Amino acid sequence: MSSQEQTAPPAVWRNLDGIAYGGDYNPEQWPASVRLEDLELMKEAGVNFLSVGIFSWGLLEPSEGEYDFAWLDEVLDNLAAAGIKVALATATASPPAWLVRKHPEILPVTADGTVLGPGSRRHYTPSSAVFRRYATGITSVLAERYKDHPALALWHVDNELGCHVSEFYGDEDAAAFRAWLERRYGSIDALNAAWGTAFWSQHYSSFEEIQPPRAAPSTLNPGQQLDFQRFSSWALMDYYLALLAVLREVTPGVPATTNLMVSSATKSMDYFDWSKDLDVIANDHYLVAADPERHIELAFSADLTRGVAGGDPWILMEHSTSAVNWQPRNQPKMPGEMLRNSLAHVARGADAVMFFQWRQSFAGSEKFHSAMVPHGGRETRVFQEVVGLGAALQKLAPVRGSRVESRVAIVFDYEAWWATELDSHPSQDVKYPELLRSFHRSLFLRGVSVDFVHPTASLEGYGLVLVCTLYNVADAVVANIASAARAGATVLVSYFSGIVDEQDHVRLGGYPGAFRELLGVRVEEFHPLLAGSTVKLSDGGVGSVWSEHVHVNGADAISTFTEYPLDGIPALTRRPVGAGSAWYLATFPDGDGIEALVDRLLTEAGISAVAEADHGVELTRRRAEGRSFVFAINHSRADATVRVAGADLLTGERYTGKVPAGGVAVIEED
């Protein structure tokens, strides 16, 4: 039973006035005089929500069983007096030195046997019984002390679970893995069948013989690898639930979450699986400065976060005001970019905008990571933009609680990501997120909103459903997707989808396995392309990464390959299905090809942009009962026209039809 089934605490954090605004606050790094100055600056910036105590275990419990809460008492009392609510952390993300010295067995171990030592952060394994005892201990003490504090609005459990290390290979982890497998399969015979251990004499006689997929002479059993990914995601969440159980017992009315790292690069945790045990979804997101389309990657990550949240509003728990400290070249954000980034998250479902961190550190690894209050203090561009953002968010109070409107769904599955990128596959160039990102980018540029949905989620109401590289798939998922087509949706399935079942066993009879009947095609053989190679298509397009020998069986060929050995073989097919259709894509089109395909799909599905706008404007619509808000974010350096009628919440005036260069308009439609 999930925690939400046990208790459903009210979303206290949403009782704030307007959009929540603030960031990580680390007052333990500063003297009392600076903390008092912080209160004045927070008032000036419009801050109403802070995460506190994330990395403070070593100061709260400087030696085992001895506590110092005086500084935290003072901080929370002052914040409450200033009307600022707090997401109070369990302080467990960085074990104190005394704990590591006493119990070095809590340290994580990598696949090659390396023990990762202290001196950084996140230096523990979630399967360590000793670490869990100490972590639940400090959590219990914090909960008892602050359970009735007026500043407490949310529990911030640990921090960025799985960051830096997401898989653990020590002896205690191995024992936990074996126990997980025994619960999953019930018998060793069932496990042998699932893993196909008849291959390479990998048969097991008991669960005690099984190890994690540690470094080995050759490729490891794919079933073992896939299950270890499942276990590793579960182990981190099980640790979260151990801390949550303590909080639920002491503060059953206070909601809890942990900050996820949803992005196109975070692979190891199944956040759809995690979401059922989080009272509100919270996410950390950072731009890659070297990416010229970083605002599009931001949109991808924000849309995926909203998908994990099931469409509900969510918390942007961390992003940066300007430069970060951990990239090879940490370029600052350009003037106005921070406002656009922040409001882009709000446009895509965030009801809270928070940063790492409030005040820029003067020491430590992150001293050059930007903050709301930079080293230069109040008289800086960054702080003035922070104040401006706070004022803007106050004007967006009517948006709070509304939901993003979308008629396009992209199916997203972490297990498919894991399984697609296992070794010993036809091509290492098939990367799970890449085709999804290409379709998302094309839709972004058209001003068409996208929902990311789990394969088991309802597809009702979507006119276009994109299924990209869904390599491993259950029968129920295939039925769900087919039902959407029969009900009238335009469904597109890409290459390397439906190939295997949940256990990574090939679906025999011809590819694409589970989707053959729906698509009306049968693939005889894969023809993955060599690095840098392309293939020409009959519609003038170009494909890369992949090609295959497709036979139509009820489908129509829309375009074909034109070169040996696949000359005349279908590359894109379409089959009418019920009131809708099922398309099959057998290659990775180039940019022009994606654009042309998306045009055809949108036209068939009858889907258009949120509004008519000039190039370079990001468009999203959020709706609440009886109210509609269009976000128009101009990423270009020229004024842009967006045809929407209504009032601009940010100016308080009638919208003129123009969004200034680098600016944002939020129009409540007539």
Q: How would you explain this protein's 3D organization?
A:
This protein is α/β, with parallel strands linked by helices. It has three domains: 3-166 and 235-395, Glycosidases (TIM Barrel), CATH 3.20.20; 408-605, 3-Layer(aba) Sandwich (Rossmann fold); 612-669, Immunoglobulin-like (Sandwich), CATH 2.60.40. 31% of the residues lie in helices and 19% in strands. It has a nine-stranded parallel sheet, with helices on one face. A seven-stranded mixed sheet has the order 12-11-13-14-21-20-19, with helices on both faces. Strands 10-24-25-30-27-28 form a six-stranded antiparallel sheet, with helices on one face. Strand 6 (259-260), helix 10 and strand 7 (282-284) form a beta-alpha-beta unit. Helix 15 packs across helix 18 (591-605). The radius of gyration is 26 Å and the shape is globular. The two termini are 45 Å apart. The model is unreliable at 1-8 (pLDDT under 50).
